[in-house]
Amino acid sequence: MLRWLRGFVLPAAACQDAEPPTRYETLFQTLDRNGDGVVDIGELQEGLRNLGIPLGQDAEEKIFTTGDINKDGKLDFEEFMKYLKDHEKKMKLAFKSLDKNNDGKIEAAEIVQSLQILGLTISEKQAELILQSIDADGTMTVDWNEWRDYFLFNPVTDIEEIIRFWKHSTGIDIGDSLTIPDEFTEDEKKSGQWWRQLLAGGVAGAVSRTSTAPLDRLKIMMQVHGSKSDKMNIFGGFRQMVKEGGVRSLWRGNGTNVIKIAPETAVKFWAYEQYKKLLTEEGQKLGTLERFISGSMAGATAQTFIYPMEVMKTRLAVGKTGQYSGIYDCAKKILKHEGLGAFYKGYIPNLLGIIPYAGIDLAVYELLKSYWLENFAKDTVNPGVMVLLGCGALSSTCGQLASYPLALVRTRMQAQAMVEGTTQLNMVGLFQRIISKEGIPGLYRGITPNFMKVLPAVGISYVVYENMKQTLGVNQK
C-alpha cells in the first residue's frame, strides 16, 4: 500500500527508532497543498488520495483525533511529526511481537504461530498471501522498513487491530458467520459505526425477506398441508394461494417477519457480548469454539425473545383471507382461545435446530472458503464477492438440510390448532406420525421453495447491505 514511500520520503534504513525530522518534512510538504504550514482533514484526504493511499474518512479522522494536540482541527509540523513517531513506536512493538525468532524479519510461519496463540487458525499459504501484500522486495519476508512503510498511515495501534484490519481488507475470516453477530471495536462503538452496520443489515434483511416472501409462505403451506393425502407442489401451491386471497396474499405474514428483525438483531447482539464475557477471562482472546458457542447461545436467546412473533407469522401465513385482520388481532385470538402457552408451541424443536444449523453452516463455510484459498487463490487472500456468496449459499443449504426436519415439526406444532380434526401432538408424536404416514421424505416437505429462495435472498441482501453502508457512511474496511 505504501511502497512508494521507499526512496521518496522514508529511504531504506536499518530498524531506526528515531527518524530525522527532514524525512517527515518532505511528506508534510507534500500533504500541505496550500503551503500554509498546517494540514487540515481535507488536505490529508486529498493528499493521500493523490498518493494512491485513500484510507477512508474514519481512519483519517482518527489520525487527526490522535495527532491534533491543541484541538484546532489542523496538524502543524510538530504535531504531524509527533504522531508519526509515536505511531512508529506502536508498530515497532507489534513487529517485534510477530518476529518470534528475533531475526528482524516476519515470515509466514510466524504469522500462523502468532494467530494460533490468539485462537485464530489460518494456513501457511494464507499467511504468505498476507505477506505478499506487505512485501516490497519480493523476498516473501517482511523487514521493519517494509512493515513501517505499509502501516505508516494506518491508524491501527496493536496486533488485535492489525488482525482485524487483515480480516476486513483481505477477506480472511476469523470465525464470524452470518448466523453470528459481528464484533465491533471500541472506536466503532464510540463513532456510531456499530449501529449503522446493524441498521444496514436490518434494512437488507427486510428487503430480502420481502422479495422472497411468496416462496417463504409457499414453504409454510407445504409444510402444514403437503401430506401424501393432500399433495401440494410449487405451481399448485401458488395457484391455490392466489385463488384464495389474490396476489397480495402471497405476502401474508411477511409484516411480522420484517418487524421481528429489529428486536431479534438487538437481543442477539446484546446476548453475544454477554456470552463472550462469560466464556472468556478479561483480556483473553475469543477462539473459534467460544465464538461458535457464544453465537449459538445468542441465537437461542434472541429466538426465545421473539418466538411469539414466529408463531404469529406462521398463523398469518396459513390463515385464510379474513381470518385475522392483522398481527394484533392474531395475537388477541390466540391468547383468547388457546392461552399464553400457544405462543411457544414448537419452541423445543426450534431451539434444537439452532445448533446443527449454526454449526454446519459455519463449518461448511470455513471449509469451502479455505479450499478455494488453498487451490485457486494466486496473488490475493480475498476470495471476492461471488466466491463468498457461493460459499454462503452452499453452507446455508447444508445447514438447512440438517435442521429442516426440526423446522418442519416446529411449523406444524405452531399451526396444529388451525387444522381441523388435528390431534395436538408433541414433538416426538409429530415425528412418529410424519414418518409412519409420509415416510422420511415427509420430513422435507417444502424444502424446494426453501432452497429456491437461498440464492436470491443472499444476493439481494448483499446488494442492499452494501448500498445501505454507503448511504449511512459506514467505513469500508
TrEMBL record:
GO molecular function: ADP:phosphate antiporter activity; ATP:phosphate antiporter activity; calcium ion binding
UniProt keyword terms in alphabetical order: Antiport, Calcium, Membrane, Metal-binding, Mitochondrion, Mitochondrion inner membrane, Repeat, Transmembrane, Transmembrane helix, Transport
Gene Ontology biological process terms in this record: cellular response to calcium ion; cellular response to oxidative stress; mitochondrial ATP transmembrane transport; mitochondrial transport
Membrane topology: Multi-pass membrane protein
Gene3D superfamilies in the record: EF-hand, Mitochondrial carrier domain
SUPFAM superfamilies per record: EF-hand, Mitochondrial carrier
Entry's Gene Ontology cellular component terms: mitochondrial inner membrane
PROSITE patterns: EF_HAND_1 (PS00018), EF_HAND_2 (PS50222), SOLCAR (PS50920)
Reactions mediated catalytically: dADP(in) + ADP(out) = dADP(out) + ADP(in); AMP(out) + phosphate(in) = AMP(in) + phosphate(out); phosphate(in) + ATP(out) + 2 H(+)(out) = phosphate(out) + ATP(in) + 2 H(+)(in); dAMP(in) + ADP(out) + H(+)(out) = dAMP(out) + ADP(in) + H(+)(in)
Solcar repeats: 192-278, 286-371, 383-471
Subcellular localization: Mitochondrion inner membrane
Pfam families the UniProt entry points to: EF-hand_7, Mito_carr
Main location: mitochondrion
Alphabetical list of SMART domains matching this protein: EFh (SM00054)
Known function: Electroneutral antiporter that mediates the transport of adenyl nucleotides through the inner mitochondrial membrane. Originally identified as an ATP-magnesium/inorganic phosphate antiporter, it also acts as a broad specificity adenyl nucleotide antiporter. By regulating the mitochondrial matrix adenyl nucleotide pool could adapt to changing cellular energetic demands and indirectly regulate adenyl nucleotide-dependent metabolic pathways. In vitro, a low activity is also observed with guanyl and pyrimidine nucleotides.
Family statement: Belongs to the mitochondrial carrier (TC 2.A.29) family.
Assembly and interaction partners: Monomer.
Official protein name in the record: Mitochondrial adenyl nucleotide antiporter SLC25A24
Natural source organism: Otolemur garnettii (Small-eared galago)
